[in-house]
Amino acid sequence: MAPIRVLVVDDEEELVSALTERLELRGFDARGATSGTEALETLATAMWDVVVVDIRMPGIDGLDLARRIRGEHPDTAVVLLTGRSSVRDAEEGLALGASEYLVKPVPIDRLARVLREASGRERDAGDE
To answer: Domains of the chain by range and CATH?
Structure first.
């Protein structure tokens, strides 16, 4: 089975690098983008199973990006990630069709589980 393709979008370049590397080590095909604009450009050139989106970003914020992804790429799941939990953001994001709302820092094994569930694929043996 082909690996789950994950696009990680966050304006913190170090976080994007760390998450993509750790997801790659767990068998995901993970790439990163450091802005909403870069994410939209990346989404236009390849198919992605799941996009992990930071809510608070300059320019196109995570909720706007999630809205655009759901409208333009309805088969791509969206997982929201934030450093500042907000009930309003969670409700709005989930109403937009996001699969999950996670608060940083999220344990990598939990993120891997959420990504598999969001993509419609169950856990692989060896995770955890």
So the answer is: 62-122 (3.40.50.2300)
